[in-house]
Amino acid sequence: MAFEKITPLAGNVDKEEFVDLGIARGSRWKRLRNISSQGFTLSNLKLIMPIIDDSVKRLLEHLDVISIQDKAFDIHKYFQELSMDIISRVALGETESHLFESSYLALAIRWVDRLNIFPLYISLIILIF
């Protein structure tokens, strides 16, 4: 499984004080899953789908402009922007899309770097993709 590949980076997931859902096991995983699953009910997901749809459409508009140049580009930064735009609108209460205009992404990247939470970042990537 993917979790086991990153477990060495996170230390002993059975004894660490802070363990995220992506790498937790056993009863800790079950507890975290029960807490987080309440936010991901079908009715809640239906509420946020228009927000996700709008952010994706805005990203596609950016990608259409880039594709006209007919050269390779790094898609990673675009997915970062999309993810942060959706998170800021759904979880942080932004009412409009700020794709490529938000300071949240730079703040999140600095936060991840400062706290040295690489295992959390990797597990989020695994969960997202």
UniProtKB/TrEMBL annotation:
Write out the annotated subcellular location.
Membrane
Pull one GO CC term from this UniProt entry. Answer: membrane
Q: Which Pfam families match?
A: p450
Question: What InterPro entries does its record include?
Answer: Cyt_P450, Cyt_P450_sf, Cytochrome_P450_Monooxygen
Per the UniProt entry, the signal peptide is: none
A single Gene Ontology molecular function, please? oxidoreductase activity, acting on paired donors, with incorporation or reduction of molecular oxygen
Keyword annotations from UniProtKB, A to Z:
Heme, Iron, Membrane, Metal-binding, Monooxygenase, Oxidoreductase, Transmembrane, Transmembrane helix
Instruction: Describe the family membership recorded for this protein in Swiss-Prot or TrEMBL.
Output: Belongs to the cytochrome P450 family.
* Protein name as it appears in the record: Cytochrome P450
Naturally occurring in which organism (per UniProt): Acrobeloides nanus
